[in-house]
Amino acid sequence: MSGRNYAAFSWGKSCCTGETGTPIAELAGVSSWLAIVDELYEGAWNAELHRFRSPYAFRGVGCATRGLTSTLARLAGSRGDIRKLEHALLRNFRKYARTDAQGADSTWDWLALGQHRGLPTRLLDWTYSPLVALHFATENPADFDQDGVVWSVNFVEANKGIPRRLQRILRDEGSDTFTAEMLAAFTTLREFEALSRDSFLVFLEPPALDQRILNQLALFSLMSDPAGSFDAWMEAHPELCRRVMVPARLKWEIRDKLDQANINERVLFPGLDGLSRWLARYYTPSNGEDVDGRFDPSDPVSAQLKTLPSTRGRDKATSRPRSRASRRRSGGTGRAG
Asked: Closest by alpha carbon to 245, among 70, 86, 95, 26?
């Protein structure tokens, strides 16, 4: 992902106040799936390249009140030395994962592999794809009664605040994000941290460890300080960050349309585990339907759907299969594909 010299964008939208009290650019009064998609793709035009190449990284969260805290920071809490904890985690991960980690050579390879496999690290998961981020904001039906959010950060503009040595590496490579190879000159995390007394943020493309990373267009954010707060970084750089709210009342519609666009667990998590996750969610009854497949007349969405035509085994308006009990009565199979 290259293409430097993006202009700074002025969104001209209303602002909300995050948990840190930081004003973050936000779309006011999101009313439809199309409004959300338009907002996610806003600012993608690159006048220099005459192409739509967004300078933003995206992260979807199912509940808008959840913070952007790394798994390492959550594990460390307020006790102990977070650097010692990080060092112990990585040291033991390298020791025990050696036989399953072909090609992992540098600290950065091991850090990316650990994050990918669930090890608590200072990294946060992002993606180049706004629709993949929207998937993660709507992946869990248990969160469908709460507003979600898609965070975005202008990583191209953020590069202007990193140490000059790192800027030279990006310039020489003609890139806007780092790879493990590009950071290999820093053999330890302490060498990387020593580049600046002030905490800074870079974005790292993980190596293609498996198909999941490729399908998700994965990207990691990396704080120079393991105890550094992403919320604090946003507070210091509010002009580089924004969030698109995903209202709870739109989540079923968004979820169904993402499924139809083939943005789902089966694609993003290739293999039987992802297939099982997709099927379990796909056949979850909606909030307008009870476990017997009957519509709740007190629910306005449900009442509207009841008047629409449907096809065998699924509701034509929502592309969701009817419940198991309903299929037994009609003889339908409710096939997912």
From this structure: 26
